[in-house]
Structure formats: structure tokens, C-alpha cells
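Q: For a teaching session next week I want to show students how multiple molecules come together into a single three-dimensional assembly. I've collected the sequence lines for a complex. Could you give me the predicted C-alpha cells for the whole thing so I can convert them for display?
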Amino acid sequence: MTASLNVSGLVLRRAEWRDYDRMITLLTSEQGKLEAVVRGCRRPKSELINASEPFVCGQFQLYFAHERYSVTQMKLTDGFFPLRENLDRLTVGAGWLRLLEKVSPENEPAGELLSMSLEALSFLSYTDVDEKLLNLMFQLKLLRLTGFSPATEVCAVCGKKLDENDLYFDAQKGGCVCRSCSVSARKLSYGAGRILKKAPKAPFKNVEMLIPHPDWPEAAEKTAQFVRYAVGDGE
Ligand SMILES: [Zn+2]
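A: Of course. Below is the structure for the complete assembly, covering every listed component.
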């Protein structure tokens, strides 16, 4: 089977591949996660050199032959270049690409996941909103879009409806738990509980409304713990 395919995508990862080529992992709107060879991109003056850099997004022309995609053309939309000038923000962004690589679906559309990720990367590159707050919003939305969300309505252990004023959080057990199931859990503030429940459904840009919220650092800490258990992201 051979076919051409035009996709909008974000480069999640690159690896050296043969002498002058690279293999990239792309998150695409049309096909979810896929791998493609960028032939000749390590030759001097290759027009495809940009196409193989992590954080680059654009329109990719792919060609499928011999069971493998190759990139034949790429039109750059954004490279989020200011990220490379701030180590803290670059580290957060690299963590997002790694998470996306772990949880993105294959062979099915992932338009909402891609557009959310690009919006998050824009905030990370072009605004000064605290990267820890952006990380919270990104993780909550990613969990929701990939079906890994922590429990917030009913207890993750016994399934009982939760009391918003008496919440506990157990990352290992799957999210919010009730008082009776809180043996190894820590108390969760009302405000942090509201963030875990509401923020994943809000548009990414609403992250700015959380800036003055006193409980977002608590929500960020709990969400990061949860991600480590749910997705196995150890770093
Ligand atoms: Zn319970």
C-alpha cells in the first residue's frame, strides 16, 4: 500500500536514523501518534531540518510505503523558540512532550489533544504565567482528554458521593477519597478540590483565572503525584 497524507502535527521526539535521516514521533490531528522518517534532514542545507525538531508544529506531507511513513514536505506553523531560552520552562515543555508520547492514541484522530497542547505550548513560550500553574492545567486537561482523570465526584475507593468540604486525596488509589477510605490519604482543601473538578472542562486559556487562586499550588502538587501513578511518568 502506498499513499500520501497531509496532517497537522507536533514533533514529540526525534531519534537519529541511518546516516542522514531522523525518525520522528508526531502527534497528529488526523491519525493520533505516528512515527515517520525524515530522509536526508541531517545533510547540509536540507529543507527538512526544521521538520525533525521537538516542539515544531506545522503541516506535514507524509508518504506511506513499505509499512512506514516518510515526511516529504513540512510547512512550519510554530517552533515555540523562546522556550529554549528558559531552562525551567523548557523542562516543563519537555515533560509535556514525554507525557503526550505515553498517552496519545494511535490510528485515531486526536485533534482536541493536539490543539490543547499547542495552546499550552503558546502560553509556556509567549506569556509569563507561572510554568507550574501551566503544568497543572496541561496535566488536568491531558488526563481528561485521554480518559485518565482522577476521581472527583465519588470516592475512588468505595464509590460513595464525596463531600466537597471533607475531601482527601490518594494518588495511588485514583484521586479523591472520602474520610472513611482516607487511611493513607492526605486532606485536600475545598479550593483545590474545586480546581481538580472544574479546570479540566474549561478552555485552556481560563488558566489565567487561576493565577490569584490560593489553592492552585496544592492542586498542582496533587495532580503531579497522580500523573506519576496513573501514567507512570517518573521524572
Ligand atoms: Zn470511600
